[in-house]
Amino acid sequence: MKFGIVSPEGEISQTIRYGTEEWVKNGGFVKNLIKEVGVFLDTHPEIKGVGLGFPGLLSADRKEVVMLANIPSVNNVPIVQHLKSEYPKIVFKIENDAKCATLGEYYFGENRGMDNYMLITLGTGVGSGAMINKRLFIGAKGNGMEIGHMLMDDGKTLEDYIKLSNICKYAQKLIDEKKFTTTIKRDEEITPKVLHDAACAGDQLAIEVFNYVGHYLGMNVVSVMRVIDLDKILLGGGISGAFEFIVPSMRAYIEKSLPPYYTDELVIKKASLSNDAGLLGAAGLIMEDYHVLGDVLD
Amino acid sequence: MKFGIVSPEGEISQTIRYGTEEWVKNGGFVKNLIKEVGVFLDTHPEIKGVGLGFPGLLSADRKEVVMLANIPSVNNVPIVQHLKSEYPKIVFKIENDAKCATLGEYYFGENRGMDNYMLITLGTGVGSGAMINKRLFIGAKGNGMEIGHMLMDDGKTLEDYIKLSNICKYAQKLIDEKKFTTTIKRDEEITPKVLHDAACAGDQLAIEVFNYVGHYLGMNVVSVMRVIDLDKILLGGGISGAFEFIVPSMRAYIEKSLPPYYTDELVIKKASLSNDAGLLGAAGLIMEDYHVLGDVLD
Fold first, then answer.
1. Could you tell me which of A280, A168, A183 has the C-alpha nearest to residue A213?
2. A229 and B151: CB-CB below 8 Å?
3. Which residue of A115, A257, A296 is in closest CB contact with B296?
4. Minimum distance, in Å, between the CA of residue B103 and any CA atom of chain A
5. What average pLDDT does the segment A167-190 reach?
6. CA–CA separation, B234 vs B202, rounded Å?
7. Helix (H) or strand (E) holding B11
8. A229–B67 CB contact, under 8 Å
9. How far is it, in rounded angstroms, from Cα B50 to Cα B40?
10. Looking at residues A174-194, what average pLDDT do you find?
C-alpha cells in the first residue's frame, strides 16, 4: 500500500509504503488504515480530502468494498462512514484501483481532460477503466470494465492469455518448442524486461510473444468497443513497456474486425503516468468536477 | 416501416406500414419520411412529439443516422433538422431500433421503471440495449451495446452462432449428422416455430439447438456483464419464443463463469412487449424524463 499527498497540480509528496499482511496481523487492516489516514490529517491540516483505491469490487454507492480477495476482513465494512465519523470535516472517497489509474490519466496525465478513453493496465492482472463523457464509467452495479475477465473463447478469459504469468508461460512454451530463433536461454528467468530487451534486439521469439499479447488484446478490445463504443485506448502497466511491439498486431486485429465507423479515429497510446497513476487517481476522486457516470441522478 | 400514434399510457392507434424500397424508389426515403410524418401531424394536432427508430448507427448527438446498411441515402442527412424546420413546434428524436425496444420496455413494459437491465432481441440479427440508472446507455460515441457483433472466439461473432439463419444452419447440420433423434424432416423448412413446437414435444434435436443458443448467449452475457455490471436480462425477438428451452443452458453458463457477486441476483426474463417494443420505445423518446446516460452534461 502506498500513501502520499497530492497537490491540485499533481505533485506527490510524503509518500510512504506499508505491507498489507503486517496491518492485517497487527490490529486489523481497517483499524490501521484509519490510524494512518489520521497521521496524515493531523500532521497536514491542508489536506482537503482523502481518496482510497482498492484492488477489488466496491458497492455501487461507493461506501464500502464488497470483494477484496487479498484482505477479506475489509469486505462490507462501512469504511467511508468509519473515516467520516473520525474526521467529519474531511471528504472521503473510495474507488477501484484500475478506475483510479484511469482517473489519474484524466486529471494529471499527458492527455488530461480527454472526454472519452479507456485505460488498460497490463501487469500481474489485466485492469481497466473508462471515462465516458468526462465521467468515470462504473456500470450499473458499480464494477464494470473488468475486461481481464471477459471471455475470449469457451471458458477462457483475457487474463488466461495475457496476464504476466501466462505471457511468461507462453514464452517458455515457445522456447521449449524451438520454433522461433531466440537468444533467451531455457533456464533464464523470463520477465517483461528480458522479453522487451530481446525484442528490441530483433529476437524472433520475443517479438512473437508480444504479437500474441497484441492479438488477444485486439480481440478483446473489439468486443469492448462494441459495448461502450469508444475508440481512444491508453495502455499502461509493466508489460506496456513493450508498447511498440504489442500495438501493431493489436491494431491490425481491431482494424480487420470492425467497420470504418469504429476504426477511422482509433487511437492507441501509451499511458503517461506509470506507477503513480493509482495514487494520483485516488487524489482525483477529491476533485470538484469528479463524477461517476450516472450519479448526477442521486 | 411501421408508424403509429402512441398515447402516454402506451395505447397504439392509427398504425400504418410502408415498404422501404418503395420509398427509396419513389422520390427518396427522406422526402417520403417527412411527408408521412406531416400527414400524421396535420391530421392529429394532439401529437406532441415524434420519435423515430432506425436499424443502424446514429451520430452521438442524435441528429442524424451515420450508417444504415439498407438505406444508405439516409446516412449523414440532418434528418432531425429537416423535420424540425418543417414543424418547428414539434419535438423530434431519433434512436437506434434495438435501443428503442429497450426504452419500450422501460416506459410501457411489464417491468416499467426498472433501474438497470439489458434487452437482447433474438431474431434475424441479435440486437441489444441497456438502461443504466434509468437512462439509456449508448456508450461514448453513441452506438454501444452492439453485442451481436462481439467476438466469441477468434473472428467469430455472437451473430455468427445465433442469428436466425445460423441457428437454422446449425439445426440442419444436426439433422444431417443424425446424432439426435428428431421428428423434423430433412427437407422441412426450419423456423423458430418448427423448432419450438418440436422442443415442446420433447424433440432431442430441437432441444439441443436451443441449448446451443443458450450456451452462446450465456458466454456473451458473461462478457457484457463484466463490462457494464448489470444482472437483469430481458430476452425478446422471435427466437425468444423458446425462452424456457434457451434459459437453462444460458443461466448455467453464466453461473459457472462468474463469482456470486454477479450471479446472486441474476434475473433472466422474457421481454413483455414483443412486436410493438420498437414502436412504443420510439414514443418513449418523447417522454419528459427520457435521457441518454451522460447527456445531462450538455
1. A168
2. no
3. A296
4. 16
5. 95
6. 25
7. none
8. no
9. 10
10. 94
Q: Do A226 and B297 touch (CB under 8 A)?
A: no
A151, B116: Cβ pair inside 8 Å? no
ipTM of the complex: 0.96
Confidence band, pLDDT 50/70/90 cuts, at residue A297: very low
Beta-strand pair A49-54/A91-96 = parallel
Task: Find the helix packing angle between B79-86 and B29-43, rounded to 10°.
Answer: 40
Closest B-chain CA to A143: B229
Query: Domains plus CATH for chain B?
Result: 2-102+278-297 (3.30.420.40), 115-271 (3.30.420.40)
* Residue A281, Cβ density class (10 Å: 0-12 exposed, 13-18 middle, ≥19 buried): buried
Burial of B185 (0-12, 13-18, 19+ CB in 10 A): exposed
- Residues of B contacting chain A (CB within 8 angstroms): 57, 66-67, 115-116, 130, 132-135, 138-147, 149-155, 219, 222-224, 226-231, 257, 259, 261, 293-297
Distance CA A35, CA A86 (A): 10
Are B147 and A259 a contacting pair at CB < 8 A? Answer: no
Our CA-based measurement puts residue A150 at a distance from the nearest CA of chain B, in whole angstroms, of 4
SS3 B272: coil
Cβ-Cβ contacts under 8 Å, A57 against chain B: 261
Chain A residue with minimum CA distance to B66:
A261
Q: CB B150 to CB A226 under 8 A?
A: yes
- The burial of B139, by beta-carbon neighbours within 10 Å (0-12 exposed, 13-18 middle, 19 or more buried), is given as buried
User: Do A132 and B294 lie within an 8 Å CB cutoff?
Assistant: yes
**pLDDT, tens digit (0-9, with 9 covering 90-100), for A34-78:** 999 999 999 999 999 999 999 999 999 999 999 998 899 999 999
Quick: pLDDT tens for A113-163: 899 999 999 999 999 999 999 999 999 999 999 999 999 999 999 999 999
Instruction: From chain A, pick out residues whose CB is under 8 angstroms from the CB of B149.
Output: 226
**Cβ contacts from A onto B, under 8 A:** 128
Q: What is the pLDDT of residues B71-81, one digit of tens each?
A: 999 999 999 99
- Coil, strand or helix at B107: helix
Q: What is the mean pLDDT of residues A11-38?
A: 93
User: Rounded to whole angstroms, how far apart are CA atoms B34 and B84?
Assistant: 10
